[in-house]
């Protein structure tokens, strides 16, 4: 993976091909970071452009996201949630599905997902005031200087009834291991695949030199 990382942002198709070879091998050896890299690679591949090919690549990407999560790396899940929140990267927008994924991720105690759900995103994930306070409380426990003021502001805006509910929720809340969340992940995978059948999505222009933005057709054969 260190070798792959050195090559990933190169400008040469030869570098991208070597990156893919190294990442694939690292994934075969069980590296969670490599699984995450392959999520993005396969999600962006269109092949012949048919919905069948796009869906097949989406399924592979989702499988790698699950493997990454099993290894404690939530970035594959985060990437997929981001892709399906808006009509980008070949997937027809579905914010409710993205919310389910972000909430699943947040329940593992991922700081990134909790911050997104607390309002740190351009998308509105529809969190209730008590849910926002929960995520800010979790974040403030780890980074009080950054998040305690936001947590306190969120608390000041709660009604009396919401404060009672928030206290109950936060007292009962515990991080969930991925093994416990696996059945929900399978359900979400199924629903992502079903919604993906409705459209091949928009093929937007890539603005970076990341290998997954280049595609197989640019790699040496």
Tags for this model:
mainly alpha, 12 helices
Brief overview:
This protein has 221 residues and is mainly alpha-helical. The chain has 12 helices and no strands.
Describe the structure.
The protein is mainly α and 221 residues long. It is 67% helix and 0% strand. It is built from twelve helices and no strands. The protein has helices spanning 2-8, 13-28, 32-44, 51-70, 75-85, 95-106, 111-117, 129-142, 144-156, 160-172, 178-196, 211-214. The longest helix has 20 residues, at 51-70. It is elongated. The model has no long low-confidence stretch (mean pLDDT 90).
Give the overall shape, derived from the CA principal axes: elongated
How many distinct beta strands? Answer: 0
Query: Whole-number average pLDDT?
Result: 90
Q: Rg to the nearest angstrom?
A: 19 Å
Biggest β-sheet description:
none
Oligomeric state of shown chains = single chain
Give the DSSP E fraction (strand runs of 2 or more residues): under 5%
Low-confidence stretches: none
H/E element string?
A: HHHHHHHHHHHH
C-alpha end-to-end distance: 22 Å
